[in-house]
Amino acid sequence: MRWLFSFVLATLLAAVHAVSYTGSRLLVVLEDAAEKEKYGVFLGDLESRGYHITTESPKSDKLSLFKHGERAYDHVLLLPSKAKGLGPALTANLLLEFMKKEGNILLALSSENGTPSSVNSLLLELDIHIPSDKGAVVVDHFNYDSTSAAEKHDVLLLPFPKALRPDVKNYFGGEGVIAVPRAVGQVLGNDSPLLAPVLRAPSTAYSYNPKDESDIVEDPFAVGAQLNLVSVLQAHNSARLAVLGSAEVLQNAWFAEKATLNGQAVKTANRDFSEKLTSWTFKETGVLKVGKLLHYQDEGVSKKLNTSGALPENNPQIYRIKSDVAFQVELSEYSKTHLVPFVPADSDVVQLEFSMLSPFHRLNLTPISKTANATIFGVSFKTPDQHGIFNFRVNYRRPFLTNIEEKRQVTVRHFAHDEWPRSWQISGAWVWIGGIWVTVFGWLAFVAVWLWSAPAEKTVKKTQ
Amino acid sequence: MAPKSRAPATTPSTTAPTTTTASTPAKSSKSGSSSAPQDILTGIWNNYVNKTPSRVKLLDTFMAFLVVVGALQFLYCIIVGNFPFNAFLSGFSATVGQFVLTASLRMQTNPENSKEFEGTSHERAFADFVLGSFLLHFFCVNFIN
Amino acid sequence: MAVAESESVFTPATSRNTRGMLRVIILALIAAAAVSSRLFSVIRFESIIHEFDPWFNFRATKYLVQNGFYSFWDWFDDRTWHPLGRVTGGTLYPGLMVTSGVIYHALRFLTLPVDIRNICVLLAPGFSGLTALATYLLTSEMVTSPSAGLLAAAFMGITPGYISRSVAGSYDNEAIAIFLLVFTFFLWIKAVKNGSMFWGALTALFYGYMVSAWGGYVFITNLLPLHAFVLICMGRYSARLYVSYTSWYALGTLASMQIPFVGFLPIRSSEHMSSLGVFGLIQLVAFVDYVRAQLPSKQFQTLLRAIVLFVFVVAFGGLVLLTVSGVIAPWTGRFYSLWDTGYAKIHIPIIASVSEHQPTAWPAFFFDLSMMIWLFPAGVYMCFKRLTDEQVFIVIYAVLASYFAGVMVRLMLTLTPIVCVASAMAFSQILDTYLDTKTPKVDSKETGSSDAAKVAAAAVLPDGLRSTRKPVVGIYSYASKLTVVGASAVYLLLFVLHCTWVTSNAYSSPSVVLASRLPDGSQHIIDDYREAYYWLRQNTPDNAKIMSWWDYGYQIGGMADRPTLVDNNTWNNTHIATVGKAMSSREEVSYPIMRQHEVDYVLVVFGGLLGYSGDDINKFLWMVRIAEGIWPEEVKERNFFTPRGEYRVDEEATPTMKNSLMYKMSYYNYNSLFPAGQAQDRVRGARLPAQGPELSTIEEAFTSENWIIRIYKVKDLDNFGRDHQSATSFEKGHKKKRTAKRKGPRVLRVD
């Protein structure tokens, strides 16, 4: 029986390449069922990765993002529709609710179809700006595909994006060229740290509405690298929203198309890019998990911080000021199918804050050891000279990685009455200790002599 | 402030300090007032040595000893500093407290004061003294940790 | 008392024994009366800890009993003053808790397991019986009349001035402190009278116990030296005074320094300098006296006196210098405000805002002391007849206590013992004179010798009243005796009636539970406080932090068992000002403050529905003032008053008022209780605007039955990084408008 069971398990496992960390129910919102074949390869890829796809039209009655107060799907893919509105089940508030319940959304825009009003208000609320007029596309006269858009220049051929910053891991890199036909450019507001660009337009691109009759665009919506073709938002609860400027990137037609970039023949790598994009948005990559977190009083006897040695009683509620404390946390990264030890980017560190109202310590956590699927980060320090209620806080927020916010509250107490050095241990006090005992012994001697000596006179007459 | 080193007083029961009609005749003072202070001091000293009973002198030696110890401690504090302040306080207060207790005992057992302390026998006074000293020592040792 | 007639039963010995027994029985009855008159609230409501401060003492006692003495000594309380915590072991007076703990363990040892709550509730009445006994002892030392002591004990047992702070349930420091105060005074008088080191040591021990029990021990620390000083100045220095004072000072100061909260204060603070000064002075005086006995010369007398004066002036000057230079701390705020009554209002608004610290209104004297208020000066005057050393003490105590009672209403309590003693002395004098069945005979010899004197006196003095020479009724006739005795009995009865009435109506309310009368006369209990605290206890996580005004901190800690931000201890003014600022600012300002302090729930008291006037909107100006003391730029009291200078909550309220967190929390959803536009605030008597306030950063979690307590939950940060105002308006359906025209240069995003 066991071999049968494992055989079945093996086949199942073989069939699944990757699975999202948070669930596999995917809703595809597509107004026109006929268009489904255009995304056939894309959807087939998704299914082969283990997603259970449900396709609904926005006007359908059955469509509901929630069931019994919980989300009914784990991920939503919104493909462009011609209608002005998306119906009552997909209002901006409901989409925000869906994200509040940790659902992920991949939103594909189209310049031909225009954006529905609820999507518009949603994007505006999240500080992602798109051109207000329907039909605006991103145009680049230097990076266009001569094969398909020789005149309009609205099919861009771009390399895979590089890392955003040296200390941010890149989940969207790859070899090849991405074709982005007739994209709706996005501009990200400056206020929100939750937004990040994935695929930026090259510096020679700009947003342009073909209906605009004039020869020169005087006040374009945005230009150059300010324009994003793919931008993402990761909320505080790590729900992900990806805005894809052009839905055609996902279509079969562009998955393995031959294109010409500046005279060179290239093959589009859209399939690869869409796989990377969806695996990030649907939480197959860039997912961090916190394992065991422990802190303990480091008596100093055993300085070994790995897990093999027996640890003193850990996660106590109360420490004392000016005492040695060690802290460890296990971090894993989920990489498509399983957890692997998390390695931060090169110039990036995970930090520990020991704070009461504001951090008293902010220390870099160093990796101490690795287990099969986690890295153990640790640090040791001395509690400050201030008593109070402190928090061990790991607050690690990076673009493209889920947020880590771990807080453990501990009390740091003052010295107990018997933890001060005794008087004879303080050299300055010896004189006075001597003084006291000299007094005591002198007194004893005096008492002895007094009792032994004769009274000064006969004792006082007793009272009657 | 540190109390100055004094020997306690034995008091007659007169209450008015303004009028100075002393009980003993003022004859000897006439001769003393005109001579140098040196003679006054020797006069006091001779008076003291001759008149006081030996038990009281024992008390006085103990008190002098306490004064010396206390002064030494205070001197040390001024020179070196009072770092463990509680230690300084307890050491110094031990001598001061013991001094006043002994002074009280002296007052209570001095034959010149017998009128004042009729109800208290010497043994009772001594027992009180021992009790007070025990308390004093306990507090001092506890305070210095 | 009546001299024993020569009857066989009443021989001197047996009559003495009978009198002794009678005294014991009377004292026991007085103690029983004292205890039972304090039990009104236990009978009417239940055995519950009252008010605010006792809840902290109760919590501390529970901790002590559960964890043992050493844990209590080292206790670091992390459930108060979040996130600063409080080193409780070193910042409280442990006497009360330790006493209760000892009683608890003693009873358990006797296999009587009494719940700690009942011990705490009934501790104060128990000790009041002991206080009556101590008053008896004290008064007996003052006068020889045996009835004075019993009268004083009876007065002390039931007088409302003492009952106010020692009813059952008022588990506060004064419960044992007044007993210790009176008993320490008794021991002191005994020590001065006997000149014995034993009594002095005992005084020091009980003084140490008093130091561990109450911050008002400073009163003893200053009264005893003042007594000694006055005696010295009056020329009554004696060896007894020296023995008693020095043994008290040496042992007592050492004992007081053992309490961590007091620590080095006896050497460092101005309030203790008088006892040190008198200690030094008495050494000088003793030395001078000794030398004077050796050298009876007038000249040396004056010389030595000059030396004494010089040394005293130098010492005093040194003291002043040390105080000015800061080595010795000057009088701290609470005690300084007793001398300069206007000081606290300007500089320390927290002290000024406490209702117990207000000056005493004159009816309070009669309310608390009844007929003793006019017997008291008579008793003090009578002390001047003989003016022994002990009676000097009465005079000094009376003068000092009267001054302090006039300054601060809370200090009526320290006035009460001396009022009882003095009025007992006066009253017993009346009774002793008139209850005596014998009439004193005029001695014939006296008349002979005094005739000449009388004639001479008559020649010098003008004619006196004819009634004094030939009285119609006279002092010693039976008619006058009956009248006076009858009148005294009536006065005593009225006294008892008054005391009982005051106790029952004014001082027996637990103030946690409010009682009112329905139109049909039956009692209606308003239990909102406990309802809200128990909601918190049962519906919030164990570590949920509660922000409220400091008045309720101890109660929240005691009944709801949740960490609080500020409480009645008020040791950290800046923290309280932070809470005040959060309460009085707009939501955008107070939300970051609440997030920084990890506040989960906010609690506010609102009396508008019931007409309960002790609510937070009435205290609001104190919050503003305290916050303004720290942040004068951001919080301005002026902004809460209308241009005409009124403090309004209706439509005329200033925008600052309407936007403040406290206003919004109090009136949120309030108009849903009334028909449209008729929301009425019954305390301020104002009609509120039709549109109630709106909240975006906090949401309503609980409102009690009569809307007295309202609890709000602080929202977490918005998931998408928006500020809460925009988030709530988006949810309501106001979509963000796209800015059509871009003003100014483009702001580029840098990544």
Q: If you compute it from the alpha carbons, what radius of gyration of chain C comes out, rounded to the nearest whole angstrom? A: 32 Å
Order of helices and strands of chain B: HHHHH
Low-confidence stretches of chain B: 1-34
Question: Number of folding domains of chain B?
Answer: 1
Q: How far do the termini of chain C sit from each other?
A: 101 Å
CATH architecture descriptor name of the domain at 526-731 in chain C: 3-Layer(aba) Sandwich
What CATH first level of the domain at 526-731 in chain C would be assigned?
Alpha Beta
What would you report as the Rg of chain B, rounded to the nearest angstrom? 19 Å
Q: Which secondary-structure class do the elements of chain B indicate?
A: mainly alpha
Q: Which percent band covers the strand fraction of chain B?
A: under 5%
Number of helices of chain C: 33
**Major interchain interface with per-chain residue totals:** B-C, 62 and 57 residues
Note the main sheet of chain B: none
Alpha-carbon distance between the termini of chain B? 24 Å
- Helical region count of chain B? 5
Proportion of β residues of chain C? under 5%
Overall pLDDT metric of chain B = 74
Number of DSSP strand runs of chain B: 0
Helix content of chain B: 55-70%
The tally of beta strands of chain C, per DSSP, is 8
- The order of strands across the largest sheet of chain C is 3-4-8-7
Question: What does this protein look like?
Answer:
The complex is a heterotrimer of chains A (464), B (145) and C (751). Chain A is of the alpha+beta class and 464 residues long. Chain A is built from six helices and 26 strands. Chain B has one domain. The N terminus of chain B is likely disordered. In chain B, 68% of the residues lie in helices and 0% in strands. Chain C has 751 residues and is mainly alpha-helical. Chain C has a domain of 206 residues: Rossmann fold (3-Layer(aba) Sandwich). Chain C has a four-stranded mixed beta sheet, sandwiched between helices. A two-stranded antiparallel ribbon of chain C has the order 1-2. The interface between A and B is large, with 30 and 43 residues.
